[in-house]
Amino acid sequence: MTDHTQPQQPHYPPRPPYEPTRPITTEPGTTVWPSGSGGGFTPPPAEPAYAAAGPVPAGPVSRRRAKRGVGLMAAVAIAAAAIGGGTATLVQQLTSDAPATTASSVVSGTNVSASSTGTVAGVAAAVSPSIVEISASSTSGESTGSGVIITGDGEIVTNNHVISGASEITVRTSDGKTYRADVVGKDPDKDLALIKLRNASGLKAATLGDSSKVRVGDEVVAIGSPEGLTGTVTSGIVSALDRDVTVAKDTEGSDSGQGQGQGQGQQQRDPRQGWPFEFGGQQFNGDTGSSKTTYKALQTDASLNPGNSGGALINMNGEIIGINSAMYSPSSSSGSTAGSVGLGFAIPVNTLKADLDALRSGGGS
Description:
single chain, alpha+beta, six-stranded antiparallel beta barrel, six-stranded antiparallel β-barrel, 27% strand, elongated
């Protein structure tokens, strides 16, 4: 048996599942590339020529070219997915009418850098011009507190205990100007008072907020004049709501014979000491005396010190939500206070707003 060596046949791609398209005669300038003989496929040149003018006639040619275009795009998409995101982005750019946006086109800056709204610095800058230092002179000495401007012509809200018994009141604004002030009305039961500057105009009034919307954990800013340091800014949160705080109605009540007998009278006249108050049946910062009142207060851990009384507790929108009125300050063995330990109290601003008309009329509700 004789072996016959068959000549090796050239390898051809498999035949397509359709009958090769025969050449089509078209108008001059249009090139159609049908399948080659033997089942092979002849690709079009890299840059096929198109007719210079006139629409391509409808019919088999248009459908044929559309099929090949879809197939080519499918192949490119698969290749792009295999290569990676960079090529996929390129495909998106080539197949989309809108230009692709890259990282380099992002606008610089953020809301935080563009505006200080909602920051402690922003609140301080906006509200500090509305906070004043109050010096009240009386036969017992001189005390320092704070106040909040509520009208451009010089109406100022403060605590009653800041100006109670004062024979002379001097106010210094944030720009260093000083004014004499008169008491318009006071409400010892709410520890609120309203004073009016003489010959003042063009002052920046604070915005009164809504204390009913305050929630535990809200960020707050306190501005006042602790120890005579005008315009001091501290910050913290609202620690609790509706604290029953008891304070003396006036300095005369706090300097009662009982208080002096306990050695507290001189401390209470010392402007460096905190205003005495009671909470939970205990007295803090001295004896409150026999004449006292209790009100619901906001509790805050924003640092409050002697001189903050009458100043503002402010939310992060720059609105006054409370009038700072009391703080706990433990005493050392020498009898001087050691400063704030994060227990401060403020009269809710809604209490002030409800009492404002009565204060303007010369009394309290």
